[in-house]
Each structure stands twice: as structure tokens, then as C-alpha cells.
Design a protein that fits this description.
cytoplasm; Rossmann fold; 7-stranded mixed β-sheet; binds magnesium ion; P-loop_NTPase; 381 residues; GTPase HflX; binds guanosine-5'-triphosphate; 43% helix; single chain; 12 helices; 4-stranded parallel β-sheet; GTP-binding
Length: 381
Amino acid sequence: MPLLKTPRNKALLVILRTQDRSDVSFRESYEELKELTESALIRVLGAIEGNIHEPNPRYFIREGKLEEAKNRAKQLTANVLIFNVDLSPAQARNIEMLLKVHVMDRTGLILEIFGRRAKSKEGKLQVELAQLKYLLPRLGGLGKVMSRLGGGIGSRGPGEPELEHDRRKIRKRIQRVKEELEKVEQHRSLIRDGRKKKHFMTVAIIGYTNAGKSTLLNALTGAEAYVEDKLFATLDPMTRAASINGSTQVLFIDTVGFIRDLPHDLVESFHATLEEVRESDILLHVLDASDPHAEAQKAVVEMVLKEIDAANKKTVLVLNKEDLLDENRKKFIGSMWPAAVLVSAKQKVGLEALLERINEVCGSRKSQGKNNFTWSRHATI
Ligand SMILES: Nc1nc2c(ncn2[C@@H]2O[C@H](COP(=O)(O)OP(=O)(O)OP(=O)(O)O)[C@@H](O)[C@H]2O)c(=O)[nH]1
Ligand SMILES: [Mg+2]
């Protein structure tokens, strides 16, 4: 059976430590890749690890590691190797050819999750653009990461004329998707102008994936945004209103989560969504305070904000999942981030203090003190 048609639902993870990411431990990489893999609904059967001093141009890993991967995959009956690094299109192709097993890299895996999650027209277009850009240089391998996309693109054999035909088709489609996305952006920009005229305050909820952004949106506004203990549960931004002190109308915008080492192309594809972040009055940076890697995750989010020109916005740091913290951890994070607001979005704890802080930071209305501070969900807009 050609590899293209075989399933990719049982994975052997290949965890590599490279020179430029020597700060990330095997354990951390393994846990992240496992979560990503499971979020893509692929089962993890096992993992192998290796240190890479200098990537092999042909296969990224050396012969010995290839042999080990082959044997473990066979022994576990894995049908896909998932790498925690990004491979060049040729490297992925070469490994597939040699080992006769599907190969996915970290970006391919993230795109796979995005593809499953996007629901709105805009979300789907953004994901399709990212997938097409990823797919273009990868045509010609045995397995096509996104073969189900683009109306059968890549479903034929790897002959050169056919490949050229597919490439042309993809380039055309990229152009079309970009044009459609431009229309979406224009539409969004009109909506934003309308909000500005009505003096709404817009608050973008941003943060690392799985930090609890959608849970917080739901808690603050009574919305019913999709919440799940998986990475990238949210792909489509949702906007909901609440009012503070009966008058200040606030629009909260939920956004796609960030993750470290997101390829630039991928960030670019979410331009329309990220524009909402850039144009908002204030950012709520939600951090999972119970995660041992919270500090590193905060740094990643700040880096992405820089990349999208939103680093200088007024920001309130929200330390979420308070209910999971013991007293020691609370003290520790309290001293580390004294200006942050501690909440539990799930238990709806600390929300009034958070809204008061938002009100203060925006300076739109003088805070009236805790006792007579009110907010209502589902404000009419
Ligand atoms: N214990 C606890 N769990 C929480 C809290 N807030 C969110 N969670 C859980 O964390 C997981 C992720 O929550 P989401 O709201 O989907 O997180 P998100 O930041 O929107 O995630 P993405 O959309 O995937 O980026 C879910 O299982 C939530 O139930 C909290 O305050 N306490
Ligand atoms: Mg979410």
C-alpha cells in the first residue's frame, strides 16, 4: 500500500536536543510534544531521544539514530515518527523514503491541530494559508502532511510534471486565500471603527496555549467559548461584552494561544486575528501560574508580542489557576510578579479585582473602590 494512504494515528516521538535549544530539557520537550500529539488526536506509543551537535543535512539525525527509530517504530507498530524540531522538506522526505513510515515535524503537527480546530471562515482561511505555505516546498514526499487539503492536492504520484502542476495550483490557491483574507481584514477594520465611535474599551485576552484564556472570557462575560485541556483549543477569536460600574462597556476578545518557536510564516498567517491584539486598548496576559514553566511561557508570549508590534501596549498580567497553587507557590509568584492579579477563571475567584484593575489601567473611569464595584455580563452593545 502506498504510504500516502496509510493512517498516521500511532506515534513514536523523536525528541532531539539541538545546540541552539540546549536550554530546553528532554523532559520538557517530551511533555510538550506529547501534549501536541494528543491534541492532534494521535496516540503516543513511545519516544526516543538524542543529542544533535550538528544536524545531518540529509536526514537531520545520524544513521545510528535512524536505525533506532526504525526498530522502535517497528516494535511498537508506530505508523508515524513525530519530531520535536522542524525538518527541512528534503530531510522529512528522505526519512520517509528510507524508513517507509510517515514523518511529521513540530510545525506540521501544530498545523494539523489548527486544521482540526478552525471553525469560522476566517479561522479556516488563516489555517489554510499557513498549511499551503508549509506544503509547497514539501511536495514530492511519500506522505503529504496536508494531503486532504486543497481539493486533492498532492494525491497523485511524485512525477515531476505532476509536481509542477500541483505547485502551480497551490501558488494560485495561496493568492486566492490571501485576497479573501484581505477582505476579512477590511471588514474587521470597519467593525473596529464602529466600536471606537461608540467608545467601547477593547481588551484582548492573550497568553500561552492552555493558560485558561477562554475560561476567563467565559467567566467574565458569561460566554460559552470552547474550553479544553488540549493545546490550541481556540483558533477563532470570540468577542463578548461586559460592563463595568454600569457604564464602561468593555469588549473582551479571546485569541489563539502562543507557543515557543512558532515559525514566522505561521504567525503571519494569523495576521487578521493578531490585528485585533494590536488594535485593542489593553491586553490581559493570562499565565498558568501552576505551570512550572510559567516564567518561560511568559517570555515566549512577550517575544511574540514584540514580533507583532504589540509589546508596548498597556498590559495586565493575570496569574490564573490560583486554585491549584499551594501557599509556597502563591508567595513565590506574588514576589516575582507583584503587580499581577491572581485569579481562578475556573472557580471565578479574583474577577472583581481584575476588572477593577482593567478599569484603573484604562483610566476610563475612576475606580470606585471595592465595595461598590460592579460589573454585569452580557451587556448590550
Ligand atoms: N484548575 C484550573 N483549571 C483551569 C482554570 N482556568 C482554566 N483551566 C483549565 O485549563 C484548561 C485550558 O483552558 P482554556 O480556557 O481552554 O485555555 P486557553 O488558554 O483558552 O487554551 P487555548 O485556546 O488552547 O490556547 C481547561 O482544562 C480548563 O478547564 C483555573 O482557574 N483553574
Ligand atoms: Mg482558548
